[in-house]
Amino acid sequence: MKPSSFAKAIPGIILALCVFSLAYWFSSSRQAEDVSERVPQPVPPQSANQPQAGQPAAPGAQPTPGTAAPAGTSLTASGAEPPALPGYWPRFRGPGLDNISPETTPLLAKWAAGQPRILWSLDMGEGYAGAAVANSRVYVLDYDRAGQADVLKCLALADGRELWRYSYPVSIKRNHGMSRTVPVVAGNYVVTLGPKCHVLCADAKTGKLFWTIDLVRQFGTVVPEWYAGQCPLIENDKAIIAPGASALMIAVDCATGKIVWQTPNPDGWAMTHSSIMPMTVGGKRMYVYCASGGVVGVDAHDGKILWKTDAWKVKIANIPSPLVIGDGRVLLTGGYNTGAMMIRVIKSGGGFNVETLYSLKPEVFSSDQQTPIYYKGYIYGVRPGGQLVCMDLNGKPVWDSGTARFGLGPYMIAGGMIYAMNDTGALTLAAAGPSGYRQLAQARILNGHDSWGPMAMVGGRLIARDLTRMVCVDVGRR
C-alpha cells in the first residue's frame, strides 16, 4: 500500500516542531538573561571549592581572580585633550587622605558679590558621589536612572565637557541617593566601587576597560543599607578593597585584575560605608578599616591581620573613616549616638596591641557622616546638631561655631581656611586655628538639598555637589 501525502509529511512536521521548540527555549533563556540584575561576562568554570554566584567562599577557598561584573559599554564623547590646568585631587580626601589641600595656589579670603564664580555645572543622577581630579580630568561615578546603569564619567576640568564614559547595567532603586563613592586615580588607572559593590578598573586617559569584579558574586559581600559608600584605595598599583564576607580585605593588581592577597574574616565582619585608611606604626605599613564588628589593622604587604578590636562599633551604619593622627593614634567617630573614641596602636614584641585612650559622648565630639580633619595639632569636625568644632588631641573642645550650623555637609581645609558646606548648598569660609570660630565669607553655590558629596580642591577650583547637581567654582585669587 502506498503511503498517503500526510504520512509522507510527518517527518518534516516533526523536524519543524523540534526546530521551533529549540528556538523558543533559546529565546526565553536569553530574555531571562537580559533582565537579570547582574549579567556577568564569561568566566572560567568554577571548581568544587570555589563559591557559586552570590555565595560566600568555603573556608580556605580561592575565588576566581577578576570575576566579572555586568558587561559594559564605553563611549568617547571627544577625542581632544582637555586644556592643561594645575591641581591634583586623585581620591577621597585628596592626595594626603587628610582632606587638606597641599597646594600653594593663592585663595580668596573674602568673597565679593558674585563670588565665588561658577565655572561650570552639570546635572547628576541622585547621589553624593564626589569627584577625583588628575591630569586636568575630573572623574565621577554617576547613576543613569533611565538607562539603569552605573556610569563612570571623565570630564574636562576646564569646562565640565564630557571626554568619555564607561557604563554597565545594574538595577538600583531610590534609597536616599544611589552613587556615593569617590573614584581613585593612580598613574594609568582609575578604580571605582559602585552602589551594589561592582569594582571597575579602566584606563584613566581613554576609558578602556581593564577589568571588573562583582564583590557580591565572588565574595558574598552584603551590600550595605543605602548602598556602598566605601571609596577604593590604590597603593603600589594595587587596588585595596574591603568586601567583608569571605574576605575581609583584598588587594587587586591594577594591571591584571588578579587578587594578590586576601584577608581572612573569621568573625564574619561585613562591609560598612567607611573607607580604608593607611598608616605606619613601628615601620610597618598597614590598612585600618572600620568593619561591622570592630576595627582592624591589616598588613599592607600580605593582608594578614596585625590587630583588631571590637571596642568600637556603630550599631546602625559606620560612615566616617578612621582618622589617622600619628604616633599610632586613630580617632573613630560615628553617628546614631555613638560619640567618638581615640585608640592607639602600639608595637609590642613581634605584634601589635590596641589601647583606648579616651571615649567622648556625642554632644562633646562625634560625626554623623563626614570624616573629621586633623590639622596643625587640632581636630576639626561637625558634631551631631551641626556645630563645627575644634578639639585638641586630648578630647577637649576648644571652640564651636555657636549658632552657625552645617548639618551633614562636607568640609575641607585649604590655604589655612575651612570650607564648610551646609545641607542646602551654602558654602562658608572660616579661619582654621584654635583662637575661635571666625567666619570669613559665605555664599550659596548650590540651590538644592542634601549637599553632602565630598569636595575636591584643584588649582583654586572647588568641585562640590548636592543630590542632583555638581558645580565647579573659582575660589582662587587670580
State which percent range the strand residues make up: 35-45%
- Mean pLDDT value: 87
Number of helices: 2
Query: How far is it from the N-terminal to the C-terminal residue, by CA?
Result: 104 Å
Helix content: under 10%
Low-confidence stretches: 1-65
- Helix/strand/pairing category: mainly beta
Quick summary of this structure?
The protein has 478 residues and is mainly beta.
How is this fold's topology laid out?
Blueprint: H1 5-34, E1 73-76, E2 117-123, E3 132-134, E4 137-144, E5 149-156, E6 162-169, E7 184-186, E8 189-193, E9 198-203, E10 209-214, H2 215-219, E11 233-235, E12 238-241, E13 250-253, E14 259-262, E15 277-281, E16 284-291, E17 294-299, E18 305-309, E19 323-326, E20 329-334, E21 339-348, E22 351-360, E23 373-375, E24 378-382, E25 387-391, E26 397-405, E27 411-414, E28 417-421, E29 426-431, E30 439-444, E31 456-458, E32 461-465, E33 469-474
Antiparallel strand pairs: 1-6, 2-33, 3-4, 4-5, 5-6, 7-8, 8-9, 9-10, 11-12, 12-13, 13-14, 15-16, 16-17, 17-18, 19-20, 20-21, 21-22, 23-24, 24-25, 25-26, 27-28, 28-29, 29-30, 31-32, 32-33
Tell me what the structure shows:
With 478 residues, the chain is mainly β. The chain has one domain: YVTN repeat-like/Quinoprotein amine dehydrogenase (Methylamine Dehydrogenase, Chain H, 7 Propeller), CATH 2.130.10.10. Helix content is 7%, strand content 38%. The strands form 8 sheets. It has a 5-stranded antiparallel β-sheet, with no helix packed on it. A 4-stranded antiparallel β-sheet has the order 2-33-32-31, with no helix packed on it. Strand 20 and strand 21 (339-348) form a beta hairpin. The longest helix has 30 residues, at 5-34. It starts with a helix and ends with a strand.
